[in-house]
Each structure stands twice: as structure tokens, then as C-alpha cells.
Amino acid sequence: MGAGKSTVGRLLAARHGRPFVDLDQEIGDIPALWAKEGEVGFRRRETATLETIVGKEGVLALGGGTVVADTNRALLSEWKVVVLMAPVAVLARRIVGSGRPLGGQMEALWTARQESWRLAGPWVEAEEDPERVADAVEALCA
């Protein structure tokens, strides 16, 4: 949350003339789904939506918790996954007022998810300007 995945993903897609897909947007109204189905239902939808996307070409922005599930990391095994990372304080500041279901748990999530993010792929510092972050992602994917 707040790392700039959607912003950087759009930049990369535009630079390379590829489609851009934001997994969270494909899933739908996350706060409403979360309220209705809870985290378990949301994560089930997240995996089902990811299954419809893998195998296609493009730049994909994942939710911050997507790679926590072994199933999702396996689905992404053919993709180059780059994790955008910033200090917790920066991430928390970026999402203030966003209404994200887990927004109030930023520090705990950041700590709990680090191992899954490490398994998912290399990290790029995302505290800088999005153009520079996109440059760093490109360098990793070249």
C-alpha cells in the first residue's frame, strides 16, 4: 500500500507500449468486498482474478498482499516480479484518507510481509520520484 505500484506500472506500460493491469481495479470495489466477504473472501477473489490475468502480456500492478499466498507466487512464476519498497512512515503518509481496509495496520503488515516480498522478487527503493523508480525497475528487468 502506498509504494506507487499503480503509478510506476502505468509509466512502464506507456514506455514499452504494453497494456497495464491493476489487479486491485480488476477485483473491484475492495472496501465493499472486504466489508461483505472479509479478508478470506477478498483473497479468494484476488487469486481467481490473478488466474485470469497470468499468461497475458503487459505490466501488472499487484496488491501489497498478493504475493503472501504461495498459490499466487506460483501463478506469477513466469512473470518478472519487482517489489517496490519504501519506509513504513512514507507508505503510511501516502495512504492517509484512502479508506484502505488494512491501512491502519501498515507497520504490522510491512513487517509480516517482508519474507513474502523477498521471495517474490528483487526490491526497488520507491521513495523517490516515480520516473526514477520506473528507471530502476527497467534496469532490473533488462
Explain what this protein looks like in three dimensions:
This protein starts with a helix and ends with a helix. The chain has helices at 5-16, 23-27, 30-53, 70-75, 88-95, 106-120, 130-141, and strands spanning 20-22, 59-61, 83-85, 123-125. Helix content is 58%, strand content 8%. With 142 residues, the chain is mostly helical. The strands form two sheets. The protein has a two-stranded parallel sheet with strand order 1-2. Strands 3-4 form a two-stranded parallel ribbon. It is globular, with a radius of gyration of 14 Å. It has a single domain, classed as Rossmann fold.
Outline the fold blueprint.
Blueprint: H1 5-16, E1 20-22, H2 23-27, H3 30-53, E2 59-61, H4 70-75, E3 83-85, H5 88-95, H6 106-120, E4 123-125, H7 130-141
What is the CA-based Rg, rounded? Answer: 14 Å
Helix content: 55-70%
The averaged pLDDT comes out at 87
Give the percentage of residues in beta strands. 5-15%
Shape: globular
Strands, total number? 4
Enumerate how many helices there are, as a single number. Answer: 7
Per CATH, the superfamily is: P-loop containing nucleotide triphosphate hydrolases
> How many domain regions?
1
Model regions low in confidence, pLDDT < 50 over at least 5 residues? none
How does CATH name the architecture? Answer: 3-Layer(aba) Sandwich
CATH class: Alpha Beta
Distance between the termini: 26 Å
Give a quick account of the main beta sheet: strands, pairing sense, barrel closure.
2 strands, parallel
